[in-house]
Protein: UDP-N-acetyl-alpha-D-muramoyl-L-alanyl-L-glutamate epimerase
Amino acid sequence: MSSFADPRNAASFRFVRHGFADGVAELVYAFDDGPELIERVTFPGAPTVPAERAGAFEAALRLLHLVAGVSYYKAGIPERIVVEGWTPDEDTATLLDSLYLHGLAEFAYRNRLDLRGRVRFPTGGTRPARAGAIGLPQRSLVPIGGGKDSVVAVEAIKSIGAEATAVWVGNSPLIATCAERTGLTTLNIARELAPGLFELNRMGAWNGHIPVTAVNSAILVLAAILYGYDSIVFANERSASVATLEYEGQEVNHQWSKGFGFEKSLHDYLHGHVASDLDYCSLLRPYSELAVTSAFARLGAPYFEVFSSCNRNFRILGPKPADRWCGQCPKCHFVFLALAPFMPKQRLLSIFGRNLLDDESQVAGFDALLEFQDHKPFECVGEGAEARAAMHALSQRPDWREDALIVRFRREILPQLDVAELALEPWLEPGASHLVPQRLSGALDALG
Ligand SMILES: CC(=O)N[C@H]1[C@@H](OP(=O)(O)OP(=O)(O)OC[C@H]2O[C@@H](n3ccc(=O)[nH]c3=O)[C@H](O)[C@@H]2O)O[C@H](CO)[C@@H](O)[C@@H]1O[C@H](C)C(=O)N[C@@H](C)C(=O)N[C@@H](CCC(=O)O)C(=O)O
Ligand SMILES: Nc1ncnc2c1ncn2[C@@H]1O[C@H](COP(=O)(O)OP(=O)(O)OP(=O)(O)O)[C@@H](O)[C@H]1O
Structure:
C-alpha cells in the first residue's frame, strides 16, 4: 500500500532541505508531513567548490531547489508554500511566483484550475548584498537538446572560436550523439526525479506540463559555478515568447520558460544574487523559427542523420518513436514545414523518411500550426503567421504545390488570408532584443 496521501488534499507544500555531496545535489520536498520526495542531480567528476565560489554555489543550489520544486508542487497545488530554514527575500519570491504562475499556466488551463492568487511564495527575508564577481573563466556552457536550435547555436559559437562545452541534462542517447557530433568537449548531467512523483501520478495527482527549461537552466547555473564557466548560452528563439493562447485575460505559453521574459528575469537575478560575472542568455533570441530553420539548412548538414526535434524521443517513461521522427506530433509537423522552404525536397524527405505534406491524414495537425480553426498546439512550435508564410512559400514552388496539403491550403485557406502578410523574408530579419554578452556577439553576426 502507498504511504502517500492524495496531494490534492494537502494543506502545504514544503521545501524541506537541499544538500550537495560527492557531486550529487539532493533536493527534498514534501506535502504536509508526508513522505519525502527526493530529486537527485549528479554532476560527473565534480571538483571541490573553490572558496571564492562557495557563496555563489550555495545561492545557486538554493535556487535549483526552489525552481525544481515545480514538478512536485503541481501534484497538489496546496494553499501554502513553506520554505524551511530560510525566508526568501522579495526578489527571490517574485522570480518564483512568476515562474510557478506562468510556467504552470498550460497545466492550469488544461486542468481547469486557476493559480492566480494561489501561487504565493513566502517572503520578508532580508535582501542580500549585491553579488560580486567570482572569477569565472571565459568559456561557455552550450545546452544541447538534440534538435535544430542548439545545433545552430553551437555552430555559430564554433565559428568565432569561443571556448565552449556541449552540455545536456538526462540520459537521452540521441542528445549524446548530437553532442558528440559538435566536436566540443561534452558534459552530461544526470537528473533523477523523485520516484514518489510517479506514485503520486498513478494515484491521480494533478499532472501536466512544467517549465522544464527553467529547471535545466537552474541545473546549469550550478554547473557553471562548479566547473567554472562564465556563460550559459541557450538556443531559445524569438518565437518562443509568443503565447499559445489567451484565456480569461491570462497568456498561456507552452514555452514560457524559453521566452525572453523568463530569460531576462533569471539573467538579472543571477547578476544580483548569485555572481555578477555569470551570464545567462539565448543566442537565438533575435531570430524567428524560420530564421533558425534557414540557418540550420545552411549549417546543420553534419547533423542531418542524427538530430531530432520530436519530443517523443525525450520521454522518461512513455513510449518513444520507432525512428527519430514519429511523424504525427506538432513538432514533426512544424519542423517539416519550417525546413521545407530552405532545403532541397529530397533531402528533407530523406531526413523524415516520408512526406508529411502529402498525407491527408495530417490535415488537422497542420491546420493547428496555421491557427486555422484551432489554436497553436501546446508544443514548441513557431507562430501561426510564420507557419502560414512557410506554407504560402511552398504553394508557389512547382515541386511542392501539388502535394495534398498544399493543394488544400491553396484552395481552402489561402483565399481567406491577406497575401501581403504571407511574405517569408520579414521572418528572416533579426529582432533587437537579446542578452548575449559582448564576448560572444560575433556569434550573433555569424547567424545574420
Ligand atoms: C518528453 C515530453 O514531452 N514529456 C512531456 C509529457 O510527459 P509524458 O507523460 O509523456 O512522459 P515523461 O516525459 O516521461 O514524463 C513522465 C512524468 O514526469 C513528469 N515530469 C517530467 C519531467 C519533469 O521535469 N517534471 C515532471 O514533473 C511529467 O509531468 C510526467 O507526468 O507530458 C507531460 C505533461 O504535459 C510534460 O510535463 C512532459 O514534458 C517534460 C517536462 C519535458 O521535458 N518536456 C519538454 C520536451 C518540453 O515540453 N519542452 C518545452 C519547453 C517548455 C518550457 O517552458 O521550458 C518546449 O520545447 O517547448
Ligand atoms: N536535456 C536537455 N539538457 C540541456 N538543455 C536542453 C535539454 N533539452 C533541451 N535543452 C535546451 O533547451 C533549449 C530549448 O530546447 P529545444 O527543444 O527548443 O531545442 P533543440 O532541441 O535544440 O531544438 P528543436 O526546437 O529542434 O527541438 C535549447 O537551448 C536546448 O539546447
Observations:
- The domain at 7-282 is CATH 3.40.50 (Rossmann fold).
- The longest strand covers residues 12-21.
- The longest helix spans residues 212-227.
- DSSP finds 16 helices and eleven strands in the chain.
